[in-house]
Amino acid sequence: MAEDHVILFVGSVTHAMRAQQLLRQAGIPCQLVRNRRDLERFGCGYGLVLTQEADRAQRLIQEAGIQVKAREEGGRRDDLS
Amino acid sequence: MIYLDNAATTYPKPPAVIRAMVRGFFHYGANPGRSGYPMAMATAEQVYSCRQALADFFDASCPEEVVFTQNCTHALNLAVKGCLSAGDHVIVSDLEHNSVLRPLHKLAQQGLIEYNVAPTSSDPDETVENYRRLLRGNTRLIVAAHGSNVTGRVQPIRRLGQLARLKGCLFLVDGAQSAGLLPISMKKDFIDFLCLPGHKGLYGPSGTGVLITPHGARMNTLMEGGTGSQSQERAQPSLMPDRLESGTVNTLGILGLGAGLGYVRDKGPGHLYERQLALAARLYEGLSEIKGIRLYSETPAYGRALPVVSFAAEGLPSEEAAARLAEEGIAVRAGLHCSYLAHHTLGTLKEGLVRASFGSYNRPEEVESFLACVRERF
User: Which residues of chain A are within 8 Å of residue B63 when distances are taken between CB atoms?
Assistant: First the structure.
């Protein structure tokens, strides 16, 4: 995975897939991955890996009513829930 | 066999449904929403695709409002028990299926709620007025079967939805008999809970059902458990659809349901409805000309009735009549059709009725064979 990526974590696979679809429609490609760490804090969930326009992607997802629970960038994860 | 029991479940299923399920066995065998390996993600995508297609078809706001259930009865129980609290009042019609009546009756017997039954009429104005007259200050929920599984009568759900919205009540539509035939819009019909089987007019397999609701996050749950989400928390999550979908979903069934919905969309629900209604109309006309046959269903008029024809033969109990038809290779349902209220309303609780119900694969010559059989064997 590229080092300059951002991962936006959402609560469920359904949220992840809707978010991916929204971003695809907005021309922002992303890959879905499982949350791999801090399970006690962030639980089982899915993240959207972005290599471009992460801020816009986050805004689009949140405007669609999907909660972004955490944002990981450069290895650092911020809890947004 | 001449299959005229489509109101119970549609048969046969389109080949695409069978192909989708077989493909699922080979390619989508993982548990969706639990892991991240390619087959798990591919399976999750298939389930999501069906969820989204249902949301689009029934005009829901987003796929998260679509909950997969094991059947329509499960969806109805989820909705009824999920939204009601002690002291609530509910209004139902006199044509409701037992899957609406029984959960409400149990809650009433427990002293938690009260419910009243609104008489329906072939005049929609009368039906709406009958519901309106029963409204109280504590009426929480109005329930209407979009179409009766016994009489085929279509209820004015948009007007009932408007009434509910105006009065601050929730509105539940039982779309068991109408989904895939008549238009249903969550938004335009002011629906709070839409309950559907996957295996009737949507041509999916048995073991599938759907609840569509924007209220899921706040509903009481019937079942709690693993959702594949927020597993670090002991409480059931509020996010939808997970809140109302504990445990592994019927993945293969959902794949079949997705294909069935695709079949309905390709054919066009309006076209399917017109064609089946024409067959019902021919059967209705033919039966009306046979001495000793009394018809109990609605005249098959466009927009007013579903393709369901129910009748009684003089001096012949309904199950005996159905048995004679079965001997001639004709499949119908007799008895009380899991609908105490409808038969109570019709006065047919003692002997029941014979019900013929049409589907996409029925043909005009089958109607003529049915009529010939009735003339000969009854």
Answer: 14, 17-18
